What we know:
Strand content: 5-15%
Strand order of the largest sheet: 2-1-3-4-5-6
Structural class: alpha/beta
Largest sheet: 6 strands, parallel
Oligomer: single chain
Helix content: 40-55%
Number of helices: 18
Shape: globular
Amino acid sequence: xxxxxxxxxxxxxxxxxxxxxxxxxxxxxxxxxxxxxxxxxxxxxxxxxxxxxxxxxxxxxxxxxxxxxxxxxxxxxxxxxxxxxxxxxxxxxxxxxxxxxxxxxxxxxxxxxxxxxxxxxxxxxxxxxxxxxxxxxxxxxxxxxxxxxxxxxxxxxxxxxxxxxxxxxxxxxxxxxxxxxxxxxxxxxxxxxxxxxxxxxxxxxxxxxxxxxxxxxxxxxxxxxxxxxxxxxxxxxxxxxxxxxxxxxxxxxxxxxxxxxxxxxxxxxxxxxxxxxxxxxxxxxxxxxxxxxxxxxxxxxxxxxxxxxxxxxxxxxxxxxxxxxxxxxxxxxxxxxxxxxxxxxxxxxxxxxxxxxxxxxxxxxxxxxxxxxxxxxxxxxxxxxxxxxxxxxxxxxxxxxxxx
Length: 404
């Protein structure tokens, strides 16, 4: 059974009509709709939601209005398809208009306000889709959504709440499509080289062995107890003290932007340059490129970034983008040459300059086989970080088992 999590809007009881409509039209034997009543205090609500997505196998999240704000804050933790219904992207501004919002509530909310868009630009934004009612009487964040998240949105003739007809004819087909898309991406990880998979399994086994030994010695520790902001561990990477982990490119500092807070600007730029083997600057000065590489400081690092750029320029359907990705994976020059010509034709039709298109394709071609999917990098990153933490803080046990 697939579980769909619904995050309700401000002041809701967790039982909005959209949930009733979903249960009415979805196969209840195949889909479970989870719609918890959330605490009014933002920090408590977010804590409950984080526990749900970390402990339950959630197939998709639907978030309405103010609930969309929480859903976006969760995107740094999960890679789950997300549908935002008439999202309130700036509750700091909108909620006081409703009235009866306490000063304590606003203070708690302000704690999260600056981080709203920090993770929305990540490559897995292809799994986010907005649904906007053209007659919404409360809010309208279509332009902000396009600017800060993506261009994946659907318009309906609804007000702030979706009608039963829109749920049946728009929302349900959309959520089924997004769930299928995610499953296809997961299945697609099979393209990874055998030695890469073997390295992940080997390192994961080492981590489990070290933790088991430590627990037997009385050092009670679990994977979930390892803090992701341990500066000694990050310094371990920077000083290249961890063996057999590849360069910190694989780490991406556990979704890089998250850790900027722990470093001074100069130190951060140096660290990032060390990770990627070069100076922090844009590889190509082109608006569509900058849009999709902003969160990686102007560097093309992920397959999803390449696909998003290709889509924006050409409008190629997803199946065609998938075929191009496979050609890059195999470095199939013959197929890629044909893809390049189609790319140039479409790009020129859409008023891009040939010089920019040629330069962009050269960058794609140069990095073709060396771009990994975001999820793959994330998996390797987390394992690499856990190994570094154990090496730094439990060096004796780690090295003993590492040599074995």
